[in-house]
């Protein structure tokens, strides 16, 4: 498969000059905007903002390339039989008596956080949800089309400035921010993702530097005056695998603080521990970010995805049905417990995992049963020592808030009251214990159905998709893809539902055919015909049957949503 440099490196497009009668983006030397021109977008893509992003790109691109090369080398070791583990050379960090900078008062209480894309109405609903924090997502909950990205930055700018409104014309209702809102965190994309609508010095910009740079440049001052109470802005950092990647983020933060002349340590971030290699680097990640950290988060769905991907070359580590891989599995519980111990030892938040349920409005009994499962999960988290949790729907906020408040009382967190010293003895064997369970044809079908429908929505511009009473993000489709690939690659026997057959290409082909027919019945023929289901099916099945497992489904699919506009289409 061609690299992004090969795919997107095209003849240099000269940026239109206003003096020629053409209106285009005013860009610094070496910058080429290949996305559609829009006068509203130009208020985000100002020369100053683009210069800031360009400076970050030029300063850190070689560090990023080195970190990605280290990922590839680690992947080769794992594929050749190696296992991830604690690094003996950083034992002094794990055993050292150091703590992170004190948590700012503005984000001391994070007992319920809501996540979602940077869609305008979603931003308003999430800020008004009564959650303590809203994580606005440029990553797994967003399909990174040019339109979505630029409008997302407009929406966040308006939210920080408290001018955001949304007119629902169908209901003739205007939505706006309440006086009291959730604290805003922003999650940029991971290090591996490019931004192919912006070229800097002839190559695609790094997606997360674009996300961070544009948001920070336009919002740091107003955010610090209002939401940050003198600190911030606040961020979530995804998909890291090693502390060297955290070191890059720390240097980016210090560079940004110095550039706008704010105090070192003003920017604060929570790192998601959502890859298997990162669980062995939690102390090191916090150490690198110690002036800027406000904790770690259990990104448990991506963690399951990463478990399969890390062990793709290990036929003795096959994952059972995804529905059986919950927090009761020893390796998952060990990951959560060690994260709590590590965070509290270092004086920062230990955030729990996602509750992806959405209200079932037409079935009260089923809705209450689902809510009860959520309550039990959150009770497990708070009693284990987590300081807060994630939800994807405002309807879950009250139930989760009640569970945490009933157990934490008036304390904003459990950083100093739940040290979990018992978890200090957890070792590599605990964190790598093979999951137990069975494999079923129903899981193969569900994986296929969810993966194709999510990818179809993603290609159509939606990154957060309601499917079967869950709000699914990219992680759900990634689990579907890599588990199907693993089962196909190793000919797994479906021993859990009496089928007793082995997964092979013939069986998978029949499953795909059946599930496409089911999707058509469920969504209706008209929507199926107009949608991206056939394109998604081709992409998804191609990745499930590929001889080599791709690192990320969205990297391949990204080619389908990148639209480059020539000079002529950049006119008013």
TrEMBL record:
Keywords: Glyoxylate bypass, Glyoxysome, Peroxisome, Transferase, Tricarboxylic acid cycle. It is an enzyme of class 2 (transferase). It is found in: Glyoxysome. One of its GO terms (molecular function) is malate synthase activity. GO terms for cellular component: glyoxysome. Transmembrane segments: none annotated. One of its GO terms (biological process) is glyoxylate cycle. Residues 183-433 form the Malate synthase TIM barrel domain. It catalyses: glyoxylate + acetyl-CoA + H2O = (S)-malate + CoA + H(+). It comes from the Eukaryota. Gene3D superfamilies: Malate synthase, domain 3, Malate synthase, domain III. This is Malate synthase.
């Amino acid at each position: 498969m061609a690299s992004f440099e090969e795919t997107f490196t095209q003849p240099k497009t000269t940026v239109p000059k206003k003096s020629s009668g053409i209106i285009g983006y005013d860009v610094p030397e070496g910058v080429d905007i290949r996305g559609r021109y829009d006068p509203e977008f130009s208020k985000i893509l100002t020369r100053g903002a683009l210069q800031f992003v360009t400076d970050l790109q030029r300063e850190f691109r070689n560090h990023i390339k080195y970190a990605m090369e280290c990922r590839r080398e680690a992947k080769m070791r794992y594929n050749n039989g190696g296992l991830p583990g604690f690094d003996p050379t950083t034992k002094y960090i794990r055993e050292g008596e150091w703590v992170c900078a004190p948590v700012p008062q503005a984000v001391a209480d994070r007992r319920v956080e809501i996540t979602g894309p940077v869609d305008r109405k979603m931003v308003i609903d999430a800020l008004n949800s009564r959650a303590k924090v809203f994580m606005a997502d440029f990553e797994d909950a967003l399909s990174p089309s040019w339109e979505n990205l630029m409008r997302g930055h407009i929406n966040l700018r308006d939210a920080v400035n408290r001018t955001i409104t949304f007119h629902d014309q169908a209901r003739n209702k205007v939505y706006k921010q309440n006086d009291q809102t959730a604290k805003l965190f922003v999650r940029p994309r991971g290090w591996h993702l490019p931004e192919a609508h912006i070229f800097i010095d002839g190559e695609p910009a790094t997606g997360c530097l674009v996300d961070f740079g544009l948001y920070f440049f336009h919002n740091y001052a107003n955010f610090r005056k209002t939401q940050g109470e003198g600190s911030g802005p606040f961020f979530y950092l995804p998909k890291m695998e090693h502390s060297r990647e955290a070191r890059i983020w720390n240097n980016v933060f210090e560079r940004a603080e110095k550039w706008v002349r704010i105090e070192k340590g003003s920017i604060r971030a929570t790192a998601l521990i959502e890859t298997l290699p990162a669980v062995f680097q939690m102390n090191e990640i916090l150490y690198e970010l110690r002036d800027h950290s406000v904790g770690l988060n259990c990104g448990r769905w991506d963690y399951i995805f990463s478990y399969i991907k890390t062990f793709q070359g290990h036929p003795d580590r096959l994952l059972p049905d995804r529905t059986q891989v919950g927090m009761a599995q020893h390796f998952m519980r060990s990951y959560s417990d060690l994260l709590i111990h590590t965070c509290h030892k270092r004086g920062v938040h230990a955030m729990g995992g996602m509750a992806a349920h959405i209200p079932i409005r037409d079935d009260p009994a089923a809705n209450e049963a689902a809510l009860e499962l959520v309550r039990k999960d959150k009770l497990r988290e708070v009693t284990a020592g987590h300081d807060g949790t994630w939800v994807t729907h405002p309807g879950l906020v009250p139930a989760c808030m009640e569970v945490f408040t009933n157990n934490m009382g008036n304390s904003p967190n459990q950083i100093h009251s739940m040290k979990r010293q018992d978890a200090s003895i957890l070792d590599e064997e605990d964190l790598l214990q093979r999951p137990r369970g069975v494999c079923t044809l129903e899981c193969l079908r569900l994986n296929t159905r969810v993966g194709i429908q999510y990818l179809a929505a993603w290609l159509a511009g939606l990154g957060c998709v309601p499917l079967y009473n869950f709000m699914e993000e990219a992680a759900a489709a990634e689990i579907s893809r890599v588990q199907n690939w693993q089962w196909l690659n190793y000919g797994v026997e479906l021993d859990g539902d009496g089928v007793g057959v082995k997964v092979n290409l013939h069986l998978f082909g029949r499953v795909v055919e059946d599930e496409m027919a089911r999707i058509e019945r469920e969504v209706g023929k008209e929507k199926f015909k107009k949608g991206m289901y056939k394109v998604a099916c081709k992409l998804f099945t191609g990745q499930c049957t590929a001889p080599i497992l791709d690192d990320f489904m969205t990297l391949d699919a990204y080619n389908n949503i990148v639209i480059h506009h020539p000079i002529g289409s950049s006119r008013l």
